[in-house]
Amino acid sequence: MKRRPRAAAAAVVMALTLPVSACASSAEKCEEAFAAAATAVPGVISATWDCDNGFGGGWQRGDVRIAAGDKGKAIAVMKEVLRAFAASPDLEDGWATPQKYTNNDGTIVVGANDLGFNGVPNVGQVRKRYGVG
Questions:
Q1: What residues contact residue 76 under an 8 Å CB cut-off, 6+ apart?
Q2: φ and ψ at 63, to 5 degrees?
Q3: Rounded distance, CA 94 to CA 88, Å?
Q4: What per-residue confidence (pLDDT) applies to 57?
Q5: Residue 124 neighbours by CB distance under 10 Å
Q6: Across-strand partners of 90?
């Protein structure tokens, strides 16, 4: 009789553990996919993400650093980054793009409004803007 409670306990532990590990891999996928798309664009120095795709939604926070001497060049680089996000099959439509992009020393900041959006777009909105998908 003691084997059944242990088997049931093991099943409960596995049922609780598997969704948590699935969320972790989803967050890693998000972080890796955003960084890969952004760093493939010439002019991007670095791109790091922190994603949480937990229960009840989640969030994506990105930090993209670019090499640009003026705001016009920075905007051009960031438009290419958005196109790379739109083209990436690994990014989900509901995932948010960064709120701002900066050059390495922080003297140039590009926001969503500089890129033609009224607010921070998600990947689906970027795809719609650039006619992808």
A1: none
A2: -130, 110
A3: 13
A4: 67
A5: 16
A6: none
With a CB cutoff of 8 Å and minimum separation 6, the contacts of 10 are none
Which long-range contacts (C-beta less than 8 Å, at least 24 apart) are formed by 90-94?
A: 90/29, 90/32, 90/33, 90/36, 90/37, 91/30, 91/33, 91/34, 91/37, 91/123, 92/30, 92/123, 93/122, 93/123, 93/124, 93/127, 93/133, 94/122, 94/123, 94/124
Among 28, 78, 81, 82, CA closest to 58: 28
CA distance linking residue 38 with residue 19, whole number of Å: 29
Contact 64, 109 (CB under 8 A): no
pLDDT at residue 18, as a whole number: 39
Residue type, 40: A
Alpha helices in the chain (DSSP H): 3-39, 71-87, 123-130
In whole angstroms, what is the distance from residue 3 CA to residue 94 CA? 45
User: Block means of pLDDT (10 residues each) for the chain, length 133 residues?
Assistant: 47 39 71 96 95 79 93 96 97 93 93 94 96 87
